[in-house]
Amino acid sequence: MEEYVYIDGKKYRRGYTTGSCATGASKAAVYMLITKNRINTINIDTPKGIPLLLKVDNINISDTFVECSIKKDGGDDIDATHTMDIYARAEIVAKNDKNKGYLTLKDIDSLSTNSECKSELYKFIRVYGGTGIGVVTKKGLSVDVGKPAINPTPLKMINHEIRKLIGDNFESILGNDKVLKITIFAPQGETVAKKTFNPRLGIVGGISIIGTTGIVEPMSDDGWKKSLSIELQMKKEQGLDKIILVPGNHGEQFIREKLNLDIKYVVRVSNFIGYMIKEAQRIGYKKILMAGHIGKFIKVSAGIFNTHSKVADARSEILVANLALMGARYEFLNKINQCVTTEEAVELINNSEYREVYNILSK
């Protein structure tokens, strides 16, 4: 894929999602199952409007099924799933299959607006999660508990591309009382999933098949923020009406060891403090407690709600300004300004008459 974007004057290559991989592998497997012709590439459309030509690997054609894979390419936004092989297995099975752990478009809320549902093709396509694909165990996600972690957009994409192959004459192709069984699997999935948000989201046993556009945008925080927001939603679904927001390990450890509060209320927000406060408000939390390193939260006191250093790093300036308003001497302000870390500045403040600055900053 040779799609690029320019960010801050630098050129970055786009990639494609696990959802696009699963879609491409599914379409290729179905095509080879029906035609018995081997192919090396497959075309798919994406919700982003960018068409993809994907290389088909690991082809296995038998009399009763076809397996193949697409290699995940994150472009210049490399994540844990980059270079993974995402497989699909296509086979025609009896409609009365007793295994109910599959997804159809009927599992998606937006049925009435989906053209595939109007064609009723969705009744004949069942998508399963195989080895390395996680299973949802907690409420609050876009997939029901007990179902494979294959999100709505990839599910729609798979159905859309298969409909393009089969058209509306699916019964004549599949046969009476038959359905098309698609199994998505990823041999490395269980290992790779440990490096993702899945364990915190209650998705066990593997990765998720995700992607709302089919395309990975380099240097984008959108996917990360969405995962954090999902965790907030899940905890609300579990009956919590208050939440503790922490940037990372330091805040979580403080909550557990110093405040002795239940860790079930904790959600890590990384640098997206402002975004997560707004999300908590939108979702309906009544109380929010925030805890973390002063180096992060001193920025929030000055209205900097994305605390990444590339966005803003005004820690010394914020301390100096507030201390100056308290009437601190020039010599003391100069020492604070020369501190390399906030820990160093805190030590100076703790040994001074200006400890009230902490209360001022926290208001």
From TrEMBL:
Pathway: Cofactor biosynthesis; adenosylcobalamin biosynthesis; cob(II)yrinate a,c-diamide from sirohydrochlorin (anaerobic route): step 6/10. Belongs to the CbiD family. It holds the Pfam family CbiD. This is Cobalt-precorrin-5B C(1)-methyltransferase. Keywords: Cobalamin biosynthesis, Methyltransferase, S-adenosyl-L-methionine, Transferase. The gene is cbiD. GO terms for molecular function: cobalt-precorrin-5B C1-methyltransferase activity. One of its GO terms (biological process) is methylation. It catalyses: Co-precorrin-5B + S-adenosyl-L-methionine = Co-precorrin-6A + S-adenosyl-L-homocysteine. PANTHER family: COBALT-PRECORRIN-5B C(1)-METHYLTRANSFERASE. Its EC number is 2.1.1.195. It is an enzyme of class 2 (transferase). InterPro entries: CbiD, CbiD_sf.
